[in-house]
């Protein structure tokens, strides 16, 4: 019961964090201290994203096959989701080039409605298979997944029927390292926005 109450108290916090995470940090204070904090946050996010991607590739052969053909990978190492009728999820991630260079930092948020209660966390990796799909991400002022490039979520069933010769979609998504009891994970309604840092 205590865990359930804590999860429900977490929902407003997550909603506020998701709303605030995409806004510019223009609060008063020292520019140098803000820059140092951002640099530290970026360094930690880079490390977490690379570790999460390595974990996915070491445990999922299909992800490794797709990774070898991708032009870039957007990795969200830790997305938090909580809900009670209205749900919210959010987390920050790193866009990595084929050779592992950091191309930018992004935020993913989503709201959902329906019968849901509880909280969970999970990792998410989006493999961009074409330069045009990557260009769409760059030019979007907040990309709503489902609009623009085609996205295929690689669940166990999809992965079995997929071969490297049938990779025709723009983006392949893997959801992994799920912790918590909520069900129905997906990318519906997710909005991905570049962070200015």
From TrEMBL:
Residues 110-193 form the Ysc84 actin-binding domain. Residues 1-18 form the signal peptide. InterPro entries: Ysc84_actin-binding (IPR007461). Keywords: Signal. Transmembrane segments: none annotated. This is Lipid-binding SYLF domain-containing protein.
